[in-house]
């Protein structure tokens, strides 16, 4: 009787699994290809619909360092650019006041970033797409072996039919501050400045209108957009506390690659880009305007954000300057502590910050010397929870194939009340490779 019972159980299990699979989405049926000439389209079909849906052969593939592999149809209605890069980072750090039970010196070797980028256009050269995915544990916010962040770093679609009104929609960096708008793979130092991380606006879901060349003058760009204001919390329901921003870039000597910090072109003619941006963040749930941590009292913040910046390049020398200002006011929440008492209201992080960064290529070599000073200051006029923080440092970069293969070394000292340890020294060596 036992073998018969086992057979019954096995049959029941097979039926159960098969039934479960039947409820899942089955593969779409593949229709056989008709033979002979195609029939005429129905009278109510849009003109040219068959041509739009027809197969298109792929032309030649091309590869370029830093751009990756591109596949394109002969008419370039469809293109796919495939690019990937990664960073391996070694760090030695000394804390003046280490946390309880910790040593003042620490070292680490981490797979810092691993990125995959897919981009191109579909149906027409005017409709583009950009997908930037991340896979490194730090990128995904691993904690106790569990990722806390989705792998989407940026994902958006563009429509560029009109040069003076390009439309972009999706999840991407708010075009507010120069250093954060520069691609991560094209940074001159191992990381952005402390002021940049404090005052810049992060990625968010939104829609922007822009022009890469206003009136065809080769001297002016603009960006204007509306964003959800939730950052990586885009999966949650929004309270209509949106973020509104606008940015203008003026290039008096003509267009150049001003969002790549190093001066690879080494032209003797000077190049200059001056930018300014303003953003109003309404009912933001985090301390740094689309970045930072949630307010402990459960409330929100409204804030005015302003930045001005400049990028100057000549003969292998580059100079980046920026200034930030934030003034916000709190909308307190009603959170209570474990004893049922209201949580103290945390003041907005009001204050200013700045960055001064320079790079210089040694003539006829691929070696670049870099230096940077950055600061954050709390406001003296209004209440603030922002702490003072200063950093200064220098570095060396060797570009084997520009940003496609480079080795970066830098040293920084950070100090001030805004740093938990009071004073910290950090030495970093980073290898970046990609195609």
UniProtKB/TrEMBL annotation:
Signal sequence, start to end: 1-24
Organism classification: Bacteria, Pseudomonadati, Myxococcota, Polyangia, Nannocystales
Residue ranges of the region described as Disordered: 29-64
Name of the protein this chain belongs to: Phosphate-selective porin O and P
Pro residues bias spans: 29-44
Keyword Heme: no
Xref: InterPro entries: Porin_dom_sf
Keywords linked to the UniProt accession: Signal
């Amino acid at each position: 009787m036992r073998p018969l019972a086992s057979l019954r159980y096995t049959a029941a299990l097979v039926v159960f699994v098969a039934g479960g699979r039947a409820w899942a989405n089955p593969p779409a049926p593949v229709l056989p290809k008709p033979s002979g000439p195609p029939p005429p389209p129905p009278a109510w079909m849009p003109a040219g619909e068959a041509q739009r849906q027809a197969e298109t052969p792929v032309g030649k593939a091309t590869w370029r360092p830093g751009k990756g592999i591109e596949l394109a149809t002969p008419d370039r209605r469809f293109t796919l650019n495939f690019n990937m890069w990664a960073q391996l980072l070694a760090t030695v750090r000394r804390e003046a006041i280490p946390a309880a039970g910790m040593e003042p010196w620490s070292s680490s070797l981490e797979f810092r970033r691993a990125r995959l980028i897919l981009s191109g256009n579909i149906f027409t050269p005017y409709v583009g797409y950009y997908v930037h995915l991340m896979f490194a544990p730090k990128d995904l916010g691993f904690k106790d072996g569990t990722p806390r962040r989705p792998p989407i770093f940026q994902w958006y679609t563009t429509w560029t039919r009109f040069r003076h009104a390009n439309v972009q929609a999706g999840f991407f960096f708010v075009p507010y501050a120069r250093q954060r708008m520069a691609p991560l793979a094209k940074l001159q130092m191992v990381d952005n400045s402390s002021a940049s991380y404090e005052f810049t606006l992060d990625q968010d879901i939104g829609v922007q209108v822009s022009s890469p060349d206003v009136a065809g003058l080769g001297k002016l760009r603009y960006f204007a957009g509306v964003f959800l204001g939730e950052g990586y919390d885009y999966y949650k329901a929004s309270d209509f506390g949106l973020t509104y921003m606008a940015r203008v870039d003026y290039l008096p000597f003509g267009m150049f690659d001003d969002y790549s910090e190093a001066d690879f072109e080494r032209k003797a003619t000077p190049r200059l880009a001056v930018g300014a941006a303003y953003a109003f963040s309404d009912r933001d749930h985090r301390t740094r305007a689309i970045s930072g941590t949630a307010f402990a009292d459960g409330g929100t913040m409204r804030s005015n954000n302003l930045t001005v910046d400049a990028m100057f390049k000549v003969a292998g020398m580059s100079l980046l300057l920026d200034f930030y200002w934030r003034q916000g006011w709190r909308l307190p929440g009603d959170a209570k502590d474990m004893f049922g008492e209201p949580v103290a209201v945390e003041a907005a992080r009001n204050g200013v910050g700045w960055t001064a960064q320079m790079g210089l290529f040694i003539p006829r070599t691929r070696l670049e010397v870099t230096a940077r000073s950055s600061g954050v200051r709390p406001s003296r006029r209004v209440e603030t929870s922002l702490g003072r923080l200063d950093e200064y440092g220098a570095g060396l970069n060797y570009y084997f194939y520009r940003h496609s293969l480079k080795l970066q070394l830098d040293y920084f000292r950070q100090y001030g009340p805004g740093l938990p340890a009071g004073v910290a020294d950090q030495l970093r060596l980073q290898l970046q490779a990609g195609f």
